[in-house]
């Protein structure tokens, strides 16, 4: 199963992929449970950045031979976000993508294929933002550029 960026996933992880996944979970302060390791391995095991939906990750983990429910995938993705390991990018009210790349960068959303990809950050200029309401601070700005065939 291709997760939109990087190779098709295989059933077993190499030692390097396991170590990368374990270190990634530790960076977020998360215990490396079997389910978390399986999902982390698919997300960051090869060191590639990716954008996944819960459904695409669920399909990939099933294809890799791991037994994880869709509810567990959703809950684990939320835990990864809360731990600062992923960013959630909402493209509409019904579709969220989870991004392993944590730096500030814009995205292209390909409306015909429903894929989210990184857009060149060096071409984006944000001249200013409105002041946050009293007692609040801007935590992040998501820029999603929607593309359709001309």
UniProtKB/TrEMBL annotation:
Cross-referenced Gene3D superfamilies: Winged helix-like DNA-binding domain superfamily/Winged helix DNA-binding domain
Pfam family, one: FUR
Keywords assigned: Cytoplasm, DNA-binding, Iron, Metal-binding, Repressor, Transcription, Transcription regulation, Zinc
UniProt key word Disulfide bond: no
Subcellular location(s) per record: Cytoplasm
Main localisation: cytoplasm
CDD domains from the UniProt entry: Fur_like
Keyword Cytoplasm part of the UniProt annotation: yes
Residue ranges of the TM segments: none
PANTHER family named in the record: FERRIC UPTAKE REGULATION PROTEIN, ZINC UPTAKE REGULATION PROTEIN
Assembly mode: Homodimer.
Family the UniProt entry places it in: Belongs to the Fur family.
Record-given protein name: Ferric uptake regulation protein
Organism: Cypionkella sinensis
Gene that this polypeptide is encoded by: irrA
């Amino acid at each position: 199963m291709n997760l939109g960026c990087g190779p098709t996933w295989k059933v077993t992880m190499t030692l390097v992929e396991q170590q990368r996944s374990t270190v990634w979970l530790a960076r977020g302060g998360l215990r490396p449970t079997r389910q978390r390791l399986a999902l982390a391995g698919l997300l960051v095991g090869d060191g590639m950045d990716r954008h996944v939906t819960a459904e695409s990750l669920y399909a990939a983990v099933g294809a890799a031979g791991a037994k994880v429910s869709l509810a567990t995938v959703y809950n684990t993705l939320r835990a990864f976000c809360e731990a600062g390991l992923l960013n959630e990018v909402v493209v509409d009210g019904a579709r969220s993508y989870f991004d392993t790349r944590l730096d500030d960068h814009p995205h292209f959303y390909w409306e015909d294929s429903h894929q989210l990809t990184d857009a060149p950050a060096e071409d984006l200029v944000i001249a200013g933002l409105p002041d946050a309401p009293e007692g609040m601070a801007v935590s992040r700005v998501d820029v999603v550029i929607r593309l359709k065939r001309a």
